[in-house]
Design a protein that fits this description.
The chain is an alpha+beta fold. The chain has one domain (2-128): Immunoglobulin-like, CATH 2.60.40. The chain is built from two helices and nine strands; from the N terminus they run αβαββββββββ. The chain has helices at 2-16, 29-33, and strands at residues 22-27, 38-45, 51-58, 63-72, 78-79, 88-92, 97-103, 111-118, 121-128. Strands 1, 4, 5, 6, 8 and 9 form a six-stranded antiparallel sheet that branches. Strand 2 (38-45) and strand 3 form a beta hairpin. The longest helix has 15 residues, at 2-16. It is elongated and about 35 Å long. The termini are far apart. Residues 1-20 form the signal peptide. Keywords: Signal. This is YcfL family protein. InterPro entries: DUF1425, YcfL-like_sf. It comes from Campylobacter canadensis.
Length: 131
């Protein structure tokens, strides 16, 4: 229980340093006890009024992961995007940092949900950009 509380507090402090105003993070207990993959996540609205996300991943051991980015409108409804509709595979080497940058294709995107699968464990992070 102490590990979960410490992990939650750490995520809270990390989210306070982001450019985003409202960050919700949900991870399963197996991933909490192993290595946290999401080191940092930032969002912003670019000059073309499109939502951008920058995700930094890091692991202490080599992992093959799959990730999927889902763009959501202001009401939380999924905005279909053929380019980001499928999971993308990625090898995360031990102690390496990988930065993933994505831009929404739809100007209505105000929220992003990122699903990460690793060794049948899943982590989900949701970040909403508030004007």
């Amino acid at each position: 229980m102490k590990k979960i509380l410490l992990f939650t507090l750490t995520l809270f402090l990390i989210s306070c340093t982001n450019n985003s105003n409202n960050v919700n993070t949900n991870t399963n207990n197996n991933l909490k006890q192993n290595n946290t993959l999401i080191k940092n996540m930032k969002t912003r609205i670019n000059d073309n009024n499109l939502l951008e996300v920058e995700l930094t991943l890091q692991s202490s051991s080599t992992k093959d992961i799959m990730y999927k980015i889902t763009w959501l409108d202001n009401d939380g409804f999924v905005l279909k995007d053929a380019l980001s509709d499928n999971y993308q595979s990625l090898r995360l080497n031990a102690k390496d940092e990988i930065v993933i940058k994505k831009i929404a294709a739809d100007i209505r995107a105000k929220d992003v949900k990122i699903d990460i699968k690793s060794n049948s464990k899943t982590t989900t992070r949701k970040d909403k950009y508030n004007d």
